[in-house]
Amino acid sequence: MTKDRYMKQEMTIFPGVKALIFDCDGTLVDNMHTHFLAWHKAFKEWDCQCTDQFLSDMAGVPTHETIVAYNRQFDADLPVEEFAAFKDKVALEFVTDFEPFSDTVQLVKDYHGRMPLAVVSGGQAKHVHGSLDYIGIKELFKTIITADTDVAPKPSPDIFLLAAKELGIPPEQCQVFEDADPGIQGALAAGMKITDVREYR
């Protein structure tokens, strides 16, 4: 069942926009709590601790880059590949433990067929595709770009510029819906219009 959210005002599409780009986790699907559970279980496996604040700050950043940042910030030596594989395996346990956000999902449904749509996510392809398929909107997107795509991740603008290229729309005519600072930074650096969905929830 779609989760109803009180909104301060309805999300709007800016004038001149010809394509919409959505983040997945925390924007289309309400699953950030499942990622936190997976991260904490992985850190416990390595007898380490991690704060929710650090994980919130790294929202939208791919798993490998998050582990590298953790090692650097906390002077740790976690094995990046092994840790990432374990965390992603744990995350699969929660792959359907979420609900869609009604506001953004409705936008996807409303604008499908009216303008091209894309998903740009820092998540693994299997998780992103699984989430979108689970809520029945995967086929509504022209392109889905994930951490498995060979492109610099958020906050780099490159991942957004690739989406614009695949959609066939200039970056300045794209509007991005995001819930995390790295994605917002990347979208702005790409010259795109941005909607911070946190302002509506």
UniProtKB/TrEMBL annotation:
GO molecular function: sugar-phosphatase activity
Classification via CDD domains: HAD_BPGM-like
Domain of life: Bacteria
Xref: InterPro entries: HAD-like_sf, HAD-like_SPP, HAD-SF_hydro_IA, HAD_2, HAD_sf, PGP-like_dom2
Pfam families in alphabetical order: HAD_2
Alphabetized NCBIfam families for the sequence: HAD-SF-IA-v3
Name of this protein: Haloacid dehalogenase superfamily, subfamily IA, variant 3 with third motif having DD or ED
